[in-house]
């Protein structure tokens, strides 16, 4: 990807992608979705590229995307940024985890405790973030959770980079049967937030490999089904 540096650390549990985004090596950066036990490997990525975090961005508040947010924010003296509708999940994300998932997590990490970040900044739909030399637009895309968002990193003269969290994956979409999920809201988000995006948009999802909007429009069965419903006012609210 031209004109922006992006590196990835995959979490040891749940396979969450934590992204580091910067204009170039030796600059400030943003960290997106620091998941389970990524702090040490993230620190190595930052050292390798000589980067200094200016913010931690969260696509939503589920624990697999926020597990390391407090130590990462604390290590660099930066705030955690999350949509206002998901900010409550940073109070105690363990509460909605459920016994089986908590057992799986503790089998890898040991006893799990939680402390909220010292500083939490909330954003709303349409926010234009200017941080670490990057221009990042925020699009509210509920469905996986109430406060799920898409972060679009602008690249002048090149296709945008979409950090899609758990809204859109390569070949699939986010679940709606977890805390905060709403299937109808997810369909609206895909129709009104994802399908209108430019085909050239690079997509970096919360789990799994990178893709493009063109590829997903052509091959993702969920988007293919929805494409014919773009004028259906029952979903779009028009």
Automatic annotation (TrEMBL):
Cofactor: Zn(2+)
SUPFAM superfamilies on file: Metallo-hydrolase/oxidoreductase
Database matches in InterPro entries: MBL_Glyoxalase_II (IPR051453), Metallo-B-lactamas (IPR001279), RibonucZ/Hydroxyglut_hydro (IPR036866)
Gene Ontology MF terms: hydrolase activity; metal ion binding
Alphabetical keyword list: Hydrolase, Metal-binding, Zinc
CDD domains named in the record: metallo-hydrolase-like_MBL-fold
Domain Metallo-beta-lactamase: 15-207
Keyword rRNA processing: no
Key word Cytoplasm present: no
Protein name: Beta-lactamase domain protein
């Amino acid at each position: 990807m031209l004109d922006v540096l992006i590196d990835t650390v995959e979490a040891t549990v749940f396979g969450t992608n934590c992204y580091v985004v910067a204009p170039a090596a030796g600059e400030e950066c943003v960290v997106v979705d620091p998941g389970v036990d990524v702090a040490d490997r993230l620190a190595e990525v930052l050292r390798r590229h000589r980067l200094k975090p200016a913010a931690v961005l969260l696509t939503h508040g589920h624990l697999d995307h926020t597990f390391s947010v407090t130590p990462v924010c604390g290590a660099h003296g930066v705030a955690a940024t999350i949509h206002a509708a998901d900010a409550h999940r940073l109070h105690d994300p363990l509460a909605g985890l459920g016994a089986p998932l908590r057992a799986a997590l503790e089998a890898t990490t040991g006893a799990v405790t939680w402390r909220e970040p010292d500083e939490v900044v909330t954003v709303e739909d349409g926010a234009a973030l200017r941080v670490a030399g990057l221009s990042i637009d925020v699009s509210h895309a509920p469905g996986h959770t109430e406060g799920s968002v898409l972060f679009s990193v602008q690249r002048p003269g090149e296709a945008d980079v979409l950090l899609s969290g758990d809204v859109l994956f390569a070949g699939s979409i986010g679940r709606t049967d977890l805390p905060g999920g709403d299937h109808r809201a997810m369909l609206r988000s895909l129709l009104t937030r994802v399908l209108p995006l430019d085909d050239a948009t690079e997509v970096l999802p919360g789990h799994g490999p990178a893709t493009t909007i063109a590829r997903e429009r052509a091959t993702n069965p969920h988007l293919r089904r929805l494409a014919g419903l773009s004028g259906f006012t029952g979903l779009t609210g028009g």
